[in-house]
């Protein structure tokens, strides 16, 4: 019996099978190799420092603005002082009121809201460690209007509505670039429109210094009327992350990197008290990018604040004045 003939005759067949299997093995192993080399980033984390652009210095043009005159010259000294004084008054008022907070949270599927939840709380603020640090305190509000015992934690990845009133405080001004866009009418209000950009990279979203956007300020009082904001450098970050997703390995129609998420918020200040305006609604939207320039809604959170009670002393309280329609 000859064993050599069997070994010689099986060699070519074995090599042919390896040649046929090699492309399949490469396809199956490629995702694992790619994952070991460079894992996909979390949609909530900023790009690596080497890619993430730095906040613009005073007078520096935006790198991706599309406009040659889009610069950040800062604020006039007199205006900056006026806005800082208003922020200081807000700091004094932070622990002098209570209000009722209603939270409506919605989820979306294919652009349509598929679920909605309503939560109601008694709401007040307490001072944190720093001069402008605030801690939100919530208690569940029962159907009869009474408060349940115990504190309820219901924080989301965006600043508290009241936190935005410190946008121009002396503490925060060094952390922001500003651009004064001039005065105009918004309803019955004569307002000044100011663009802002925070110097901190976007991480947890709880600090206003991680955001950029536009604020409308009452010309007379220096208090905010409306704020619209998004995470700093979000447009560049989403474009970078979507390009990364588009180049990710595709396995039977599925890519190994996630599509990026984005966020935006709007805060309306619809209550006037002692020449200050107080937040009455905060809307926070999360969307998912489907291309470098378009997105679909993912979730939304709307928080409304009603029934403000202002305390001047330990035993006195005064109701706030609701702004008339158009304000």
Output the keywords:
327 residues; alpha+beta; 11-stranded antiparallel β-sheet; 3 helices; disordered C terminus
Describe the overall structure.
With 327 residues, this protein is of the alpha+beta class. It is built from 3 helices and 16 strands. It has helices at residues 4-37, 77-93, 234-247, and strands at 97-109, 112-127, 134-140, 176-186, 189-198, 211-218, 224-231, 250-251, 254-255, 261-268, 271-273, 276-278, 281-289, 295-311, 317-319, 321-322. Strands 1, 2, 3, 4, 5, 6, 7, 10, 13, 14 and 15 form an 11-stranded antiparallel beta sheet that branches. Strands 12-11-16 form a 3-stranded antiparallel beta sheet. It has a two-stranded antiparallel sheet with strand order 8-9. It is globular and about 65 Å long. Residues 1-18, 23-69, 313-318 and 322-327 have low confidence and may be disordered.
SSE blueprint and pairings:
Layout lengths: L3 H34 L39 H17 L3 E13 L2 E16 L6 E7 L35 E11 L2 E10 L12 E8 L5 E8 L2 H14 L2 E2 L2 E2 L5 E8 L2 E3 L2 E3 L2 E9 L5 E17 L5 E3 L1 E2 L5
Antiparallel strand pairs: 1-2, 1-14, 2-3, 4-5, 5-6, 6-7, 7-10, 8-9, 10-13, 11-12, 11-16, 13-14, 14-15
What's the shape? globular
The assigned structural class equals alpha+beta
Percent range for β-strand residues: 35-45%
Radius of gyration: 27 Å
Q: Count of DSSP helices?
A: 3
| Oligomeric nature of the chains | single chain
The H-and-E topology, N to C, reads as: HHEEEEEEEHEEEEEEEEE
Query: Got a strand count?
Result: 16
Mean pLDDT: 78
Straight-line N-to-C gap: 102 Å
Helix content: 10-25%
Low-confidence stretches: 1-18, 23-69, 313-318, 322-327
């Amino acid at each position: 019996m000859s064993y050599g003939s069997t070994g010689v005759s099986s060699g070519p067949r074995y090599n042919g099978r390896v040649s046929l299997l090699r492309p399949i093995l490469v396809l199956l192993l490629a995702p694992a190799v790619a994952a070991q080399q460079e894992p996909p980033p979390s949609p909530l984390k900023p790009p690596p420092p080497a890619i993430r652009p730095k906040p613009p210095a005073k007078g520096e043009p935006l790198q991706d603005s599309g406009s040659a005159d889009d610069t950040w010259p800062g604020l006039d000294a007199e205006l900056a002082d006026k806005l800082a004084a208003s922020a200081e008054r807000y700091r004094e008022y932070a622990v002098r009121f209570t209000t009722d907070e209603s939270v409506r949270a919605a989820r979306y599927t294919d652009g349509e809201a598929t679920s909605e939840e309503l939560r109601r709380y008694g709401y007040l603020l307490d001072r944190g460690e720093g001069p402008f640090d605030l801690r939100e305190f919530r208690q569940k509000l029962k159907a009869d209007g009474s408060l349940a015992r115990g504190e309820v934690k219901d924080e989301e990845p965006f600043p508290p509505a009241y936190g935005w009133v410190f946008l121009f405080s002396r503490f925060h001004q060094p952390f922001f670039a500003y651009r004064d866009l001039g005065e105009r009418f918004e309803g019955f209000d004569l307002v000044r429109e100011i663009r802002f950009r925070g110097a901190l990279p976007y991480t947890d979203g709880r600090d206003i210094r991680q955001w950029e956007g536009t604020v409308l300020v009452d010309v007379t009082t220096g208090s905010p009327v409306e704020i619209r904001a998004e995470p700093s450098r979000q447009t560049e970050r989403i474009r970078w992350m979507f390009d990364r997703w588009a180049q990710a390995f595709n396995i039977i129609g599925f890519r190994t990197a996630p599509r990026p998420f984005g966020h935006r918020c709007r805060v309306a200040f619809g209550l006037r008290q002692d020449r200050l305006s107080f937040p009455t609604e905060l809307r926070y939207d999360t969307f998912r990018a489907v291309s470098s320039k378009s997105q679909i809604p993912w979730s939304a959170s709307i928080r409304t604040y009603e029934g403000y009670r202002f305390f001047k002393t330990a035993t006195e309280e005064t109701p706030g004045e609701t702004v008339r329609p158009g304000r």
